[in-house]
Amino acid sequence: MVKAKTQYVCQQCGATHSKWSGRCDNCGEWNTLVEQVVQGAGQSSVAKAVGTGQILKTQSMKDVATDGPSARLSTGVPDLDVVLGGGVLPGAVVLLAGQPGIGKSTLLLQVTAHLGKTQDVLYVSGEESASQVKIRAERLGAQQSESLEFAASTSANDIAATIRQGRHRVVIVDSIQTLSLDEIASAPGTVSQITNSSNVLIRAAKETGTAIILVGHVTKEGSIAGPKVLEHLVDVVLQFEGDRYGGFKIVRAMKNRFGSTNEAAIFEMYEEGLRSVENPSAALLAERQSADGSVVLATLEGTRPLLVEIQALVNPTSFGYPKRTASGFDLNRLNLLIAVIERRTKLNLSDKDIYINVVGGLKLNDQAADLAICMAIASAAAGRRIDDKTVVFGEVGLGGEIRSVTALQKRIAEAKKLGFTRAIGPKAAEGKGFVTAVSDIRSALIDYLQK
């Protein structure tokens, strides 16, 4: 009996190797090589393809016929519609990824319950049985939708055949990592299965104009599990972020062929499902206490202004190497800001442990948070408070200068709406009346930290 030919495929980048090794030579990742049987031994696919094919029929771009603007389907969640660019577009393929237990299936079942009132919707689960999904549907009030159908399957062939019937306007697949093609021998979740299963579903969606929402798993580093090509294949990539045990949860678009990637939807989990947060700034500041190390930052989540509390704790270190810990803020950026404070002011932080916390479980990617972080650290180190009715924003350069930030008017309007009387910001905001401009970090600390 002829032994089947095998090769080792990297699950991170898809590179093939003739023998197993602990580290992929192409991408450098460890323990990602999986053995797979080589299909179709003999003449290579490239050699077979030489001389085949037909000449394409081309036409001028001005002669290309369009179907007109397709009506988008509302998800029933206005904030999610904004993130999607106005709703779910027929024929679009959306990938929703997030940590386990954060609420992906809950959100999609809420969406399908709304869509099922007016459209034919199919929910396909490869992870749960019909009875398990029914329990969640009863909790969310989705069991009454007559047009919402359910199927439990892990076969990409069967799901694609069902989509090609054209009966359903929207299909939810939970999740893409559980699907497999009959023609491929590797296990579900491998590079070849994810890539080929996605291609089969996407072709079926484009042929029939069916919108597909795929649920994706993430790795322990937070990136979407499987090959990077999965993100290139789909039209929209949504990332579900936040703390799965509490706090706010944020859905943001990492890629969107039909809209902006600057939008974000903020949710909070309740017993009856996820609910949009109408005024997140007020909720984040509701339990704030006036103390040293507490600073209010005017930041942005997408294009939405948001006021969040930055907390800092500075203690003398008990070890030779001081500890720096950040929750919701980049640790490398924190170390850089600490170095700027030490170099450009008279504060000595070399023997201090520094802890930074962004209240509400949010993760800040806004450079305008620099000044608020610096003032919170200085406030905690010196035991001085900042005025309770003051918000802070501004980027800090290596020379200690305060640089301008985007969307000044939105930040100012949000602060005024919640009753704040002053903002400390860069010189670019000078003349706004509400904003007190500062030129460098030293003057900001000297002038606005109170005893």
Would you mind describing this structure in some detail?
The chain is of the alpha/beta class. The protein has three domains: 36 residues; 207 residues, Rossmann fold, CATH 3.40.50; 167 residues, Ribosomal Protein S5, domain 2 (2-Layer Sandwich), CATH 3.30.230.10. It contains twelve helices and 21 strands. The strands form four sheets. Strands 6-5-7-8-4-9-10-11-12 form a nine-stranded mixed beta sheet. It has a seven-stranded mixed beta sheet with strand order 15-16-14-13-17-20-21. Strands 2-1-3 form a three-stranded antiparallel beta sheet, with no helix packed on it. Helix 9 crosses helix 10. The longest helix is centred in the middle third of the chain and has 18 residues. The chain is globular and about 75 Å long. The chain starts with 5 loop residues before the first strand and ends with a helix. The relative contact order is 0.09.
